[in-house]
Amino acid sequence: MLILKTLTRAPMHGYGIALSIRRLSDDVLTVEEGSLYPALQRLLLQGWVKAEWKMTETNRRARYYTLTAAGKKQLGLELSEFDQMIAAITRVLQNA
Amino acid sequence: MNRLMRLFRKFRLTGRPDRFNRELEEEMAFHREEAEKSFVAEGLSSREARYAAARRFGNDARLRDESHSIAGLALESVLQDFRFAVRQLRKNPGFAATAILILTLGIGASVGIFSFVDAALIKPLPFQDASRLIVLFESNSLGPRFHLSYKDYIDWKSENTVFSSLEIYAPWGFLLQTPTGTQKADGSRVSAGFFRTLGVAPVLGRDFRPNDDQPGQPRTAILSYAAWQRRFGGRADAIGQTVVLDGQPNTIIGVMPRDFHFAPAEPADFWTNERADGECEKMRACHSAFGLARLKPGVTFNAAYADMRTVVAQLERQYPDSNRGRGVFMLSAIDLIVGDVRPILLVLLAGAGLLLLIATVNVSSLLLVRSESRRREFAVRGAVGASRGRLTLLFITEGVVLAASAGILGTALAFLATHSVMGFIPKDMLASKPWLNELGPNVRVLLFAVVVSLLSAALFSLMPALRISIADLHADLSSGGRSFAGTVWRRFGSNLVVIELTMAVVLLVSAGLLGKSFYRLLHTDTGLIPDHLATLQVAAEGPEYKKDPARIALERQIDARLASLPGVRSVALTSDLPLGDGDGTKVLSVVGQPHYDGLREVIHRDVSASYFRTLQAQLIRGRLFTEDDDASKALVGVINQRLAQQFFPNQDPIGQQVSDDGDGNQHVRIVGVVNDIQEGQLDAAPRGALYVPFNQSPTSDFAVLLRTAQDEDSLLPTVAAAIHSVDPGLAVYQPMTMSQRVHDSPSASLHRSSAWIVGGFAVLALLLSVVGLYGVVAYSVSQRTREIGVRMALGAQRSSVYRLILREAGRLAAIGIVAGLLCSLAATTLLRSLLFRVQTWDVATLVAVALILGSSALLASYLPARRAASVNPTEALHAE
């Protein structure tokens, strides 16, 4: 979900995704960065992202991942589910 | 649709694996480099930056693997594992050979026995809806399974309300006229609706029409497929031809399908009709046939039985003279055909399954020993990033490779074995169990083989894998790694080995006893010398042989013709051959002695003058018959020793008069005593026998015996032709040598097959127990390497290490052998009825078995003991 969300703004390469997740979460979410790649493979397989090789600003070859239409739909689905869950948790925490 | 798309993407991703790898690699490297750069920018040295980047990135080997398994079809890694497994097995051929051999034997035994089970119990009988078929008998005071009379059949058929049809069959030996003379031909006489009741139609021509069996209708015959091929070359013009059976012309109207058989009436070449106008069929008291019926839909066996009982009770009241005491007995056709073998086969299958289970556990224990020595390897693999699942997969692949090779070899072995078992089964027995011909590879048997192999693979690949995951890989890396699980396994393994050894002892003792008794049986004194002795049956059924002089003339002619054949030393005739069923008895009384208390039934044989000389039987007292002992002289007889002891203890039997006609009018003077000739089966107790001269009591149905100078088997066709040249109307059948008669006799077959089956199981059990012992001892050695190292470092001699290991093995072996010997004393009492002149506690067998097992156990434990003794103490301690 995080990867998909990150990709909504612009196509990005793996390092960029890792970087932006870390930065946006203020260094809270810093899992093994490598585990991004198996996850990306899974998303490719689901058809939620597609990949193409491009040049970076520093003129190096990197694989850029782009969100597909199916990916957008999936993200919407997951976000609404997540919202519902958070809302539920919040309710429980406030009322208990 | 979605799945398809995914599969398609998968193929696109992994379709070119090197590109997939290269791209993933490049992507990851790019990531690390970028991270490194950012660390450098934060002020770290390049070296520190690389470490920090790598640390943050994680275990890249594992991640790569994970990406693979997500994207890939897992096929690649399986192939890799497969190649690895094969390489591992080839690196250790001794282990691989042992494991595959054991599994091959285990799977082979199971598949082999399953193929018998399949042929007998699973493959449906070649009838339509066979479970609704019933076989009917008439019961009388002697027992339940007797013939019913034709008139009773007609009444049963019309009075019952439970069968949709009721027919009869009567197995029959036809006399068939052929261009080369009369032959005996097997077949059956059936009522016209017989095949319709079975639900089988001829493959060629037509079935009997409903009124074909009525008097006055032209006689018709149906051929079995085998007879059509053999006697008519499989030509379609066989239909419409005429065969002369029992002197009556029959038109061939049909041929039964190739896979058709009706076991109770097999072997059968010809099927003709039982007709109401026959001699026997006119009499209600003449019982000639068995019933076959099909239950009406919805009628149960028990309801049908009850209905038939009332029908039969009614007939008993109506015809008390002929039907008093005669009831009805019913069996389902399936029970009649395979009922007697079902329990034996199921027991054998269970036994084979048990052996396979033990074989599998043994192979697991071997794998475990190896996994023990490979723990470091696995610990290292784990440390460099192999996931636990991947390690387990490695074990499973190895197990599957083993099981697959063993499965293929075992199935081949099973088919070879069943093929050779078929060779042991005498022709007569094969004919009465036609389903045995269905033996062989088929889908069900192959499926069974695959399932059994997979199950064993599952079992023994899971065990070491379990073991690996119980053990902590980190602990393994840092130490020699002894764990609780190891001790548990050692205990379980030891108990298993003791059970295996016990089982092996019991089976070996049984096999030894059966083998010994089979040997004794074949070498028992039959009172005759079986080598170079040929036998044939002759039936002179023609009307010209009703009178005694014609029969005597025929005997003289046959005798003269055969004696002139080259290679024939002497020729003899007898009413019944020795080593038969021991039938043909008469009640004997001694003239002048009013009553004899003992068994008065004695075997009675009409033999020609040269009979005893041809058999090379020993004359004890008096004289043998001569050609002059004919109807013009007083009746004479020769008795055997047994009869002499029975009727004339402490007397000279020569000159005594006996009577064999029941009313005591016909007196026979005893002129000689010969040794006991075994008239019954090989293992039958000797019985009294009275021989009378053929010339004084000629028969038209007799056996010919020839003592030959050359190979007796090759002479048989010439002999048959020579007898036919005397009179083409004679039926000549069952050409056989006396040795074949000994070897194929039911008692010899029973002993042989039981000795082979138990022997096979025993060898299997021996192998298993030895390998099991090896596995347990080797495992224990591998666990105790450190202890042994310490002992040796403290000054223990190699010999004392040997003793240490051998003592452990010896203890297991001794417990197993002693327990086995005790159990076998109990178990073999069950075999007593199968043993011939062998005691159940035959000391030689018991000692031999103990020695065999003891030495095998020694061998099995010597190998690991040697490994233990060659432990280098420095290395063992260094490895800490």
Could you characterize what this model shows?
Chain A has 96 residues and is α+β, with helices and mostly antiparallel strands. Chain A has a single domain, classed as Arc Repressor Mutant, subunit A, CATH 1.10.10. In chain A, strands 1-3-2 form a three-stranded antiparallel β-sheet. Chain A is globular. The two termini of chain A are 29 Å apart. Chain B has 880 residues and is of the alpha+beta class. Chain B folds into four domains: 72 residues, no CATH class; 183 residues, no CATH class; 313 residues, no CATH class; 189 residues, no CATH class. Helix content of chain B is 54%, strand content 16%. In chain B, the strands form three sheets. In chain B, strands 1, 2, 3, 4, 5, 6, 7, 8, 9, 10, 11 and 12 form a twelve-stranded mixed β-sheet that branches. In chain B, strands 15, 16, 17, 18, 19, 20, 21 and 22 form an eight-stranded mixed β-sheet that branches. A four-stranded antiparallel β-sheet of chain B has the order 14-23-13-24. In chain B, strand 20 and strand 21 form a beta hairpin. In chain B, helix 13 runs parallel beside helix 25 and helix 25 runs parallel beside helix 28. The longest helix of chain B is centred in the middle third of the chain and has 39 residues. The radius of gyration of chain B is 38 Å and the shape is elongated. Chains A and B meet through helix 2, helix 3 and strand 3 of A and helix 1, helix 2 and helix 4 of B.
